[in-house]
Structure formats: C-alpha cells, structure tokens
Design a protein that fits this description.
The complex is a heterodimer of chains A (about 400) and B (about 425). With about 400 residues, chain A is an alpha+beta fold. Chain A is built from 15 helices and 8 strands. Among the domains of chain A are: about 110 residues, no CATH class; about 50 residues, no CATH class; about 120 residues, Cytochrome c-like domain (Cytochrome Bc1 Complex, Chain D, domain 2, Orthogonal Bundle). In chain A, helix 9 packs across helix 14. Chain B has about 425 residues and is mainly alpha-helical. Helices cover about 70% and strands about 0% of the residues of chain B. The chains are: A alpha+beta (about 400), B mainly alpha (about 425). At the A-B interface, helix 4 of A face helix 10 of B.
C-alpha cells in the first residue's frame, strides 16, 4: 500500500453561492468525471452540475409491472390450473380476490427495486473512498462544500485543474492520491467470511442428506415430556390392571349416559330381523320439516338438495376425476325407492359402501325424520296429480 | 416556527384581484340562476317523474360542491396541523373556497321539499317506504330511531354548524395574520387544527351516511365515509390547481405559484387518486366476498344494463387511466399535462358522485324495474350542476375580490415562495 497514484484534485468552498458558481465553471470547462460533496442538499446544484435525471424510475416501473404480472400469473396458476379449489362458489380464477396480492407484489417489487436499484446505480456498497484519506474532507459533513475532479477525466491536467479551482475562490486545494494495490479485504475478515459461508452451507447439506437417505436410528426427541406423556392411548396395554387393559369396561348393571337403547324398532329400524315398513313414531308436519332441515345439513353435500346424487362434494370429485370416488346413490333410483323406511334408517345409522354411519352425529329421532324426508322426496319425484290436495290441483295444472 | 427565506418585495405584487373578478362573479351568477331555472322548469313541466329527476340532479350538484368545500377545509387544517411550508402560496385559495359553506347550507334548503313532503321521493325512508325486498323491512325498522326526519334535520344542522364554524374560524385566523407581523394567529391556527380535524372527520363521515348512503336505507357500508373523503380530497387538489391556473392567466399570483407548487399538488392528486381506488376496492371486495344480499344489492343496482357501462367507466376512468396518466414526474411538472389531468379528475369526481347518487332513482333493490330502467343522464343533470357551480363560483369570486390571494404576512410565506422539489 505504499505505492500511490493520483486520484484527483479536491477543492473546499465556504458558501453555497461559491460552490454553485464553481460547479457551473467546472461543467463549462467540459469535465465529466467529477462530483460535489456538501453537508446538506443544495438547491440548484443538480442543474449547475448538469446532472441528468436518474434512470431509477424506469427501473422501478419495469419491476412494478413485473410484480403485477407475476402476481396475476401466480394466482392463476395456483388457483385455476395446478390445484383448482372451489372457494365460496366463486370462479376458480377470480380477479377481485386476486387484487390484494397484485397490489402487494407490485409494491414489493417496486420498493425492492428502488432500494437495490439505487445501490446499483451508485455502485454501492463501497467500503473505501480515496477522499476519506484527506483529513479536511471531514468538514463535508459540517461546514464546507467540496468539489473533487478525478484524474481519470480525459481533460485532467493537474495545473489547469488547480488554476480553474483557484479562479473560483477555493479555500484550499489538495491533490489526492489513491493506493495502487487496491486494498483487498483484510485477511481476517476474508477467512471469517469463508468460514461463515461454509457453515451456512451445512444446514442445507444436512437437509439434502436426510432427504436422500434412509435412517434406521430412532428419531431424536427434542421435547421429551411432550413426546412421551404419562398417559394411556386407546387400546393400549397396562400392567396396572389385572386384565392387562388400560381401557376399563363399564361397571355391571350401568348404562352410559345417552346409550340406553331399549326400543329395538326405534333404535335399529328392525324387528325380528325384518326392516320396519312403517315409522315407529308419529308422523307429522313438524317431523318432516325437521327431516328436511337435517337432510339439508348432513346429506345434501353428497346426495344433492333433491337427492339426485349431485351434491357439491360429488361435483367436485367428478371435476378433479378422483379415482377413489364412489358416486353417491341417486335416491330416486328403483333400488332405493323400494327400500322400506327401516332400511333407510339403518343405512343412515350404519352407512353403506363408501358412506359412513351417522349414528354418532345424528340422534335416532332425527334419523327417522331424515328417512321420512327421503321418502317424501322420492314421492315428490314420482308423484301424480292425485297426490296433490284437490284444492291445489288447479294451481299446478 | 422559523423561516429560512425572507419574503422579497415583488412577491407581494399581483395578489389583489380588485375588480378583475367582477365580470366572472356577474357571469357566474347569471349562469347559476339560468341553469337552476331551466332545471326547475324541466322538472316542473315533466310531472312527478321529472321532478324526482330534478331533485336527484340537484343532490348530485350539491354533493359535488359540498365535497369541494369539505376538501378545501380539510386541506387548510391539514397544512396547519403538519406545519407545511410549501403550501402557503395556495392555501388562501382553499380558505376562500371553504368560506362558501354558508352558501352550501343555503343550497341545502331546497332539499327540504322532497325531505318533508312525505313522498320519500329522494330519501325513501322519509316517505312510506317499507323496503323493496320483504327482508329489508326489518332492517329499516331497526334504523327508524336514526333515520327519521326530525333527527335527520338535527344532524344536518350539526354538520353544517361544524363546517361553517371551522371554515369561518380558519379563514378569520388567516386574515388576522394578514394584519399583523406577529406569528400569533398562525400559532393559534396550528393549535386549533388537530382537534378540529377530529370533529370534522365525524361530520364528513356521518354527513356521507346521511346524505348519500341513506338514499338506499337498507344498505350499509362503514367505509363509505372514507370513500367520500377520498373523493373530496381529489376534488380539492384538482380545484386548487385549476383555480391557481385561472388566476395566473389573469396576471394574478404569476410569480408566487411556481411549477414546484403545481408538482406538489400533482403528487397529492396522484396519491389520492390511488387512495380513492384503494378505498373503493376495499368496499367492493368485502361486499363481493361475503356475498350478502343486503350488501351486494348496492353494486347489483349499478350493474344493471342502465348502469353497467358507467360502473366500468368509473373503474377505468376514475382510477386506472388517471393513475397511469399522472404517474410520471414530467406530467406533474408540465403546465398543459397537469391542467388536463386536474380538469379530468374534477370531471370524474362529478361522475363518481353521479354514480353514487343517481342509480338510486330507479334501483331494483328499492322496488324499481329489474333492469334499472333507462339511464336518466341528460340535459337536466348538466344544467342543474352547472347552475349550482355558477352560484358557488360567483360567491367565491365576490369574496376573492375583497381579500389578498396570498396570506401576505404568513411567517412561512418566504419558505413557500422559495420552495423547490428535489
């Protein structure tokens, strides 16, 4: 770092007026590689120096439009193409729902490109500048205004530059040198940086290794008392009780709350191995209304509102062509319409094919109500004019 | 409150309009009377339907001017609360405009006819309206304690009381400053501004609910006041730009208002065009996503064949086009560019108010025809709005002739005159 070459000429001025005049003179002399350093923004200095408007807004505009386009593409691809998912009955690709993300990504891309574009245009980060070696340059942050003309300028000749700056009334003029061997990073920092980079590569390396290898050692438990809680899981063995079971049988002669099923016909829909052909409870308008309400809650998702087997879950399964999907029955098919109420009740209770049993969710009375409503639905699809009360027949004829 | 720049003597030239505004005041008055007379005749001769059309048109013009008044009042208070230096040279234009609030209160009086004649032809709740949809009757019944004529009148009285009081107070403090070298009046205005803005915000928001949202009484949107606020501020920015340009064309304020001040007003205009779009979309998104009938009906009314094109025009013409148009710094600093965009923004603000108010006349959700009927736009809206604007401008010109167009002794005037953007 002993050898040095000329960096340029640094002149200090006392007032705003002086530096404005000096900047005009330097510009008029035709210099291109030079700059001003002032303690605060000086109005009119850009104009005096002939600084052109920055290109930054164009960069930001391009990135903003890119962010907007990316947001549109991202939401179109994820929502409508790669994993179509119906939300609230809106279209798969629905612009209003996408606008917030479009807005955010436009702002994000614009803001980041403003910040890093400014760095790039100013050639930042820069750790060292030759002017920092001039002690008097410190006053650039308090009370002096500086002009630095670089030796790299094609018109640079130290005598002419000095006389030009002197003519503008510079308080002091100094030639500035810069070290020839561009100072590399200090060795210590260099080694630490290499070591840190190497360490940073370790976690991803472990992840990659774990992803492509099979391990036969048990997993490592970070939080031991959460992974191993002092409790028994369902169906687990226990050495505490004589029968070796952790789960206990009910005490003889007791019935759990809500599990007293005395009336066989009412609770199973069967009597002596035969399905009930009638309803084991009074059939009235209230029951059928209850049935409609429960049907619409529990059954329509698959069977559809009118029982045609066209519920939203089925529509969705058809749309994505699910190989596992067994379509729900059309409740108006002949095989279903001939079923007695007891069989329908039992289907709801225990399930059939892919349909799960609903005994846990729906109490028996409501299951009967649904069976009644299903019967009514079937009647409605196969009805004739004679089914309609005489006083209403005229209105639908 | 220190100022870095002294006020040069030539800065106080061309600040007194004197009799140069007399002709404008006269012509605007004639235009105003003629416009309102033609509008009233059109309404009177066309029977009940056209009379309704007249009242709706009157409300459009009235709301347009009210938002200019509220915008300029807020602008003035805002400059005080933040202690802005740049805006002093255009602040007096805003102060003179907002002093029109007593006139706006007078202009409200004719609206008492459709309010109190029991027909409910403008505000349906003031008549025998029971809700267009059976489900709306319950909503409306719930709102009865709020939406009834006596309480409505009381509230309108309070709003105008607040607006007139604040407008007169802030203009008076500014005029007091003209007469003294001590900065006391400006210091006082700064102290007044913060609490005043809070009171003003309530008057603006509830005023928007009462005058505009209650045109469809079963509809509700809590952000609606903010939407009107955004529009008001757009109107204010455009209004200040147009007024300053108009005065400069008459050799007033020629050296004082520079491209730097226009640039800042342009930035404000740009920001609030975006803010308007942000708020308008926020209101739409929530309603669209929730998809509740009592909320979507407001937009469905505006997507009928009669209004669909207007709605699209609002989205693109009020937001997308001016946003792209005024994005560039060069446009904001161009005399012609900014003049065109400010005129356009003010026109679009009128169309926005028209779009908020007028579809309620034949709204399907209020029991109107399912397709929204035919779009009523025609001579009526134009003559009534031009007429009301004529009276507004005439009163403003008369006042502007009496006072300097610049706060001549404002302690921050020097900074404002020397203001430069980077």
């Amino acid at each position: 770092m002993t050898a040095a070459r000329a960096y340029g000429m640094l002149a200090a001025f006392k007032t705003v007026g002086e530096i404005l005049a000096a900047a005009k003179a330097v510009k008029a002399a035709g210099f291109t590689k030079w700059d001003c350093h002032t303690p605060f923004p000086v109005h009119g200095l850009d104009k005096a120096m002939g600084v052109r408007m920055t290109k930054l807004p164009w960069i930001v505009l391009c990135f903003g439009v890119t962010g907007l386009s990316f947001a549109i593409w991202l939401q179109w691809w994820t929502n409508a193409v790669d994993y179509p998912f119906l939300i609230s009955g809106k279209p798969m690709w629905s612009i209003p729902a996408n606008v917030p993300v479009m807005f955010e990504l436009t702002v994000l891309f614009s803001a980041l490109s403003t910040f890093f574009g400014m760095w790039m245009l100013n050639r930042l980060p820069r750790w060292y500048h030759p002017l920092f070696s001039v002690p008097s340059f410190r006053r650039a942050t308090s009370d002096r205004f500086f002009i630095a003309i670089e030796a790299g300028d094609p018109l640079y000749q130290s005598e002419t530059v000095r006389s030009l700056l002197e003519a503008q009334g510079a308080e002091s003029i100094e030639a500035v040198d810069e070290p020839v061997t561009q100072s590399d990073w200090p060795p210590k920092i260099k080694y630490v940086a290499w070591a840190a980079t190497g360490l940073l590569m370790l976690p991803p390396a472990f992840i990659v290794q774990a992803k492509f290898s099979t391990s036969d050692t048990p997993r490592f438990h970070l939080v031991h008392d959460m992974d191993h809680q002092p409790k028994f899981k369902a169906q687990a063995a226990s050495s505490l009780f004589a029968d070796g079971r952790a789960m206990r049988m009910p005490i003889d002669g007791t019935v759990a709350r809500g599990e007293l099923f005395e009336d066989e016909a009412f609770n199973t829909g069967m009597v002596d191995g035969e399905y009930l052909t009638d309803f084991p409870l009074p059939v009235d308008e209230f029951l059928i209304e209850r049935g409609r309400e429960r049907f619409n809650i529990y059954c329509t998702v698959c069977h559809g509102v009118s029982g045609l087997g066209d519920g939203m879950v089925n529509q969705r399964a058809q749309e994505i062509i699910s190989p596992l999907w067994v379509p729900p029955f059309n409740l108006h098919a002949d095989t279903v319409t001939i079923q007695p109420p007891g069989q329908i009740f039992q289907t709801i209770t225990k399930g059939v094919r892919n349909m799960p049993g609903y005994a846990q969710q729906i109490p028996p009375r409501d299951r009967w109500a649904i069976a009644l409503y299903v019967k009514a639905l079937q009647r409605s699809q196969a009805g004739s004019l004679e089914d309609v009360p005489p006083q209403h027949r005229d209105s639908i004829r | 409150m220190t100022t870095a720049h002294a006020v040069p003597a030539e800065a106080l030239e061309g600040v007194h309009a004197g009799d140069r505004l007399g002709r404008l005041a006269r012509i605007a008055l004639y235009v105003g009377i003629a416009g309102l007379a033609i509008g009233a005749c059109l309404g009177w001769s066309g029977g009940e339907t056209e009379m309704r059309h007249f009242w709706f048109s009157y409300l459009v013009g009235f709301t347009f001017l009210l938002t200019i008044g509220m915008g300029t009042l807020l602008f003035t208070m805002l400059q005080h609360v933040v202690g802005a230096h740049w805006s002093v040279v255009v602040r007096r234009i805003a102060e003179l405009t907002m002093a029109n609030f007593p006139l706006l209160a007078l202009m409200f009086l004719p609206l008492l006819v459709p309010l109190m004649d029991g027909s409910g032809s403008l505000w349906p709740w003031a008549g025998h309206y029971e809700g267009g949809d059976p489900g709306h009757a319950a909503l409306l019944e719930h709102k009865r304690p709020f939406l009834n004529v006596p309480f409505f009148l009381l509230r309108i009285g309070i709003y105008f009381g607040v607006w007139i009081f604040l407008a007169r107070r802030f203009l008076q403090m500014s005029l007091d400053q003209d007469a003294t070298d001590s900065p006391d009046p400006t210091v006082r205005a700064r102290k007044w501004s913060a609490p005043s803005i809070i009171v003003f915000a309530f008057a603006l928001s509830f005023g928007a609910f009462d005058l505009l949202m209650s045109l469809n009484p079963s509809w509700f949107s809590t952000i609606f006041g903010v939407y009107i606020f955004a529009g008001s501020f757009i109107a204010n920015c455009a209004w200040l730009i147009l007024c300053a340009r108009w005065l400069q064309n008459r050799n007033l304020l020629t050296t004082q208002v520079t491209v730097e001040h226009y640039h800042d007003l342009g930035k404000f205009l740009f920001a609030f065009i975006f803010f308007w779009g942000y708020i308008g979309f926020s209101q739409f998104l929530i309603i669209w996503y929730a998809n509740l009938p009592e909320e979507t009906m407001w937009y469905k009314d505006r997507l009928t064949p009669a209004w669909e094109m207007w709605s699209w025009f609002i989205v693109f013409g009020h937001f997308a086009l001016p946003f792209a148009g005024i994005l560039s710094r060069h446009v904001k600093r161009s005399r012609v560019g900014l003049l065109v965009l400010a005129s356009y923004a003010l026109l679009m603000h009128w169309i926005d108010m028209y779009w908020v108010i007028m579809p309620n006349m034949n709204a399907p959700s209020l029991g109107g025809p399912a397709d929204g009927g035919t779009n009523p736009f025609g001579l009526m809206e134009i003559v009534v709005s031009v007429g009301l604007c004529g009276l507004f401008v005439s009163a403003l010109a008369r006042r502007a002739a009496k006072h300097p167009l610049l706060p001549v002794k404002d302690p921050l005037l020097g900074d404002s005159l020397a203001f430069e953007n980077f």
